[in-house]
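User: Predict the structure for this protein chain, please.
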Amino acid sequence: MTSQRKNKTIFIDREAASALELVKDKLLYPLTGLMNQKESEEVLQTGLINNRTFPFPFILAPAGKKNETILQTLTQGEEITLICENEEFATLIVDEVFKIDTKARVKHLYGTDDLAHPGVEATLKRLGSYAVSGEYTIVNKQPNQNVKLIQDAKNIINAKHTTAIFMAANPLHRGHERLIRQTLDRTDLLVIFLLKPYENKNLSYDLRKEALEFFIQNYLPKNRVIIVPLENSYIFAGFNEIIIDAIVAKNHGCDRLTIGQNHAGLGMFYDCNSNKSIIDRVTNVDIEIEIASEYVYCDKCTTLVSKDTCPHGQHHHMSYHSDSILELLEMGIVPPAVLMRREISAHILAKLFPNRFKNLEKLYYDLFPTEGLLKEHTSKDFYLKLMQLYQTTSLT
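Assistant: Here is the predicted structure, written as structure tokens:
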């Protein structure tokens, strides 16, 4: 319900609200609040807050003509209401309103202002020309239980090292599974931050979480792995993603962060006569960042291998591209078991295509050998049996 206060109102989206909640939960420390113009300029020059890394100014500059008109009328000390999804989200005591360069802003976030970049285009649509700073209070703020959840899990197993992985698992494939196992080999507790994107071109968060939980419950020591939901807002995009991941992981109680060698943000650059990466910019964030090997399927080795250790050339390697595997699933095609665990494929297809078959029971008994007993079968059962037929090789 929209607030009945007589405050001026500013409308923000769920992404902005999510970022504001992270700050209040102290999960972006050393960041403690919205930055004014002077603080923003200092971060741009130094990349630091209180001598700790923070990669870009944290500002609130919502788009929209109505927002822009209101922002230009605000005075210092005035209280305003922030509205998100037609409900009162927070109140804010205005400190300063200042104009920003929107193209420069997206370049700070993504390293480019090229509209061909999907993140740039999306951010420019939701970014206004005026930013407001000041102390804000979230209405009906619920405590974040994830830090306590992780600490409790650490206490139960007396974990000395806790490692974080950030992933969308969209969908969870064999490459993800190998990365999880490899990381678990070198840590006591693994925290998987499962990303919740805002666009609709992904499998639902619940479906991805179910797949990940199935893998953990059936194939891993389940008391050593925790799934933590994380809304994947704009601050996690672009070439600064690894830095923000490290900050969030540290503030959740992790002392290590594992990233894949093929991570989009792991760009290399040449500086002071040596090769460096974005990791070299992390200052006084007390977390160890490990770069995991990229895994591929080699048709010579006939198994998953590290690109660093396999002697065969790239023409023998099959990479694990989530978008291509997802495309197969969205077309209703069963991915080969070498790409995805068959139980997970079956579960996802059954959810994506409910009531797909006109007469599932007839199809099931016509195609598959049975024990002569009549019983009901689900779409998931059908896909599992179908994959078994694909793996029959005596006639192929």
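Residues 324-390 form one domain.
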